[in-house]
Design a protein that fits this description.
It is elongated and about 95 Å long. 45% of the residues lie in helices and 21% in strands. Strand 6 and strand 7 form a beta hairpin. It is of the alpha+beta class. The protein folds into three domains: 135 residues, Beta-Lactamase; 102 residues, Beta-Lactamase (2-Layer Sandwich), CATH 3.30.450; 74 residues, Arc Repressor Mutant, subunit A (Orthogonal Bundle). The strands form three sheets. It has a five-stranded antiparallel beta sheet, with helices on both faces. A five-stranded antiparallel beta sheet has the order 7-6-12-11-10. Strands 8-9 form a two-stranded antiparallel sheet. GO terms for molecular function: DNA binding.
């Protein structure tokens, strides 16, 4: 199941051991009409697949060509009549989650009872293989969806050993190294924060993990403009995938755009004045209106007047909703 094409060696070996002109494995996911067709050898694979899939074969029972052709459509009769296939042995299996598989050997001369017996003997193994394949495909899908969500939220991850060396990193975490000098990959693949104080915090955290102490995740703000945060947490559980040297996982969340860029986007999106956009962006970071006013050099009364105009233009009914409106807007994707 890890080959390209899938199960290529298996189909070729089955063909060679049975003397078949063609071996065919068809797979149909649960609830779908499309069928994946894997073939080794020469023959009318399309007609054979339609014969198998459309033949209402019982699960786990062996079939010969004569039994299947009785229920075949007229078009398949004609295709098979013109083809060099005169014999076929097949079985259908269904794994527990509902994935169907059809395995067949076809040839221009008779296929003996030994071929039929081999096909039947392979059925339970094929069922197990399809179960593993279905589980792997589900995990691939979940991983792809999770990865896409992380990418859209500008969140990357990397794992470190107790010496601070990078064991593995997601693709977008690697891209974050290119945003600036706040984090970089140093000598011997060590993760190096630009701020010496942050570097000492990270080293102290790794030392505690290496000593087997129970530590809570460490959250560090690396920069406000552009925004970059880091969460360091002990890596839970061991694996057998070759990454046992990793001891902590680091989540990096950031925004390559500056505060000025974001304010310009708010002006475009909601028709805010530049002064209103600067206040709106600070409020969207869950900053209190008093602290935002102080940051911008405004009186609190002026900031409150601005906030009323911001709420009216964005449709927000308060501070909490303004955070949601801005942080779930397309700014999160840009």
């Amino acid at each position: 199941m890890f080959q390209t094409p899938l199960w290529d060696d298996f189909l070729r070996r089955l063909r060679a051991s049975t003397g078949s002109a063609m071996t065919l494995l068809a797979i149909r996911p649960k609830g779908q009409s499309d069928v994946a067709e894997l073939v080794a050898g020469d023959g009318p694979a399309g007609a054979a697949r339609r014969l198998l899939v459309g033949g209402q074969m019982r699960e786990g029972r062996g079939y010969a060509l004569e039994e299947l052709i009785e229920h075949a459509a007229a078009a398949d009769h004609e295709a098979l009549a013109d083809a060099p296939i005169r014999a076929l042995r097949a079985v259908r299996v269904t794994e527990p989650s509902g994935v169907d598989g059809w395995l067949a050997c076809a040839g221009g001369s008779a296929l003996g009872s030994s071929t039929g017996a081999l096909i039947l003997a392979l059925a339970p193994h094929l069922r197990i293989a399809l179960r593993s394949f279905a589980a792997l495909e589900r995990e691939r899908f979940r991983s792809a969806v999770t990865g896409e969500a992380f990418n859209r939220l500008n969140i990357g991850w990397l794992t470190l050993d107790t010496q601070g060396r990078i064991v593995e990193a997601s693709e977008n975490a690697g891209l974050m190294f290119q945003w600036g000098s706040l984090l970089r990959r140093g000598r011997y693949d060590r993760l190096v924060p630009a701020d010496p104080a942050v570097d000492r915090q990270l080293a102290g955290f790794l030392k505690q993990v290496a000593a087997g102490r129970s530590v809570r995740p460490l959250a560090i703000n690396l920069s406000r403009d552009p925004w970059l945060d880091m969460l360091v947490a002990p890596l839970q559980g061991d694996t057998i995938s070759g990454h046992r040297s990793a001891s902590v996982i680091v989540y990096v969340s950031g925004d390559r755009r500056s505060q000025a860029d974001r304010c310009e986007q708010l002006v475009d999106m909601f028709g805010l004045l530049p002064s209103e956009a600067r206040l709106a962006w600070l409020l969207a970071q869950a900053t209190s209106i008093r602290d935002a006013a102080a940051t911008l050099g405004l009186s609190e009364e002026t900031a409150r007047n601005y906030s009323k105009k911001i709420y009216a233009k964005t449709g927000a009914r308060g501070h909490a909703e303004l955070v949601r409106v801005i942080m779930t807007s397309v700014l999160a994707l840009s």
